[in-house]
Amino acid sequence: MAVLVTFWGTRGSIPTPGHGTQRYGGNTSCVEIRSSSTTVICDAGTGLRALGEQLDSENRPGPLYMFFSHPHWDHIQGFPFFTPAYDPKKKILVFGGEDEEPVHGLLSGQMQPRYFPVRFENLGADIRQGSFRKDATEVGNIQVRRFKQHHPGGSFGYTFLTEGAKIVYSTDNELDALVTSERKDGLRKLPAEIVERYRDADLLIADAQYTDADYAHKKGWGHARATTAVDLALQAGVKQLALFHHDPLQTDPQMEEKVRTCQERARRLGGDRLLVFAAREEITLKLP
Amino acid sequence: MRNERRLTDSPQALGRRRAGHVLELIQGAPHERFLLEGEELVLGRGARAQLKIAATELSPRHLILRAREDEYVCEDLDSKAGVLLNGVRIHRAVLRDGDTLQLGSLVFVYFER
User: Fold this and answer.
1) 3-state DSSP call for residue A107?
2) pLDDT digit string, tens, across residues A56-75
3) Which residues of B touch A240 (CB under 8 A)?
4) What is the interface size between A and B, counted as CB pairs within 8 Å?
5) Which 57-76 residues of chain B touch chain A by CB within 8 A?
6) What DSSP line would sit under A240-260, residue for residue?
7) Strands, E, within A97-149: which ranges?
8) What is the pTM (predicted TM-score) of this model?
9) What ipTM was assigned to the predicted interfaces of this complex?
10) Would you state the pLDDT for residue B17?
């Protein structure tokens, strides 16, 4: 049985529906990882609404496990429209930074009456805060590790291991702020302890919001250059890199250009075996 | 005029789609164009496939194309050789203009006109 990874929302910052973003999609961050027995959801951006409809139609048994990178709007905004949350038969465990600020509380905050007509406590599902022990946990048959990333207010990346596949979800992470040096050929070196988190991943879903030109005037905004995500994937021996968290200002043709630039960079830096592509809404990958 | 076949799973489905959805076989077998007009079209080497291609590397039921509003969703039917969309192994995907689908050595381009 293969592990399936579906992109339900790939955009960063704000939803961008419209003709210009039809190919890659306009919904904000939401990724589903499905093993033979377990369903994990990474972030609850606006893409979560369509995932909810899909889950309703399947009636797949077992709890849902939701992992949040952080509670910025583009990562939680879909939650009030997630129909399984209204189902009294459903159990949902939410994971994030429970030590600092429980995700559970952040989700309920956006559902206060001033913002949304349904109160969080009136949702039908049994929604609970999940927990980590030394940054590791196990949900169903998926082993999960979390790690801190570089983003204003903080964010978490996650590593999922299941059924022979390693998937790393690492969005909202300004990799460029972590670069230690640049090799003669231009490869941006990252600290070894950071690279190890991504080592030999079958799939890396990485923040790749900015082009090099964008980043020149967006340093410190908490997002990576797509080209630096390529460099990380090369250093870590990643097999497939999904460029993710697309900038809301990037149209489909600009996205194509960004992907081409990244593919050429991977080839130039010796990454012939690294597959680089842009995450696109409603595509389900089959791993390993 | 290139060889073009209209594919459907029912006569009622012919002409129902607003856009023309075309799957063009460009590599691995003689060139051919398929105009997709059915609700559910199976591609494979089996006798019951609407889009039947006699290539041994294809599974009898390799891939299904399902119409959804005015687009097509393709899904791998647990085929042996798998399905690559623009070089990436997929299980399911909404097709977009210009996508390439690779099934073994057979390469198709999907486009809308």
Assistant:
1) helix
2) 999 888 999 999 999 999 99
3) 88
4) 39
5) 73, 76
6) EEEEESB-TT--HHHHHHHHH
7) 126-129, 136-139, 142-149
8) 0.95
9) 0.94
10) 59
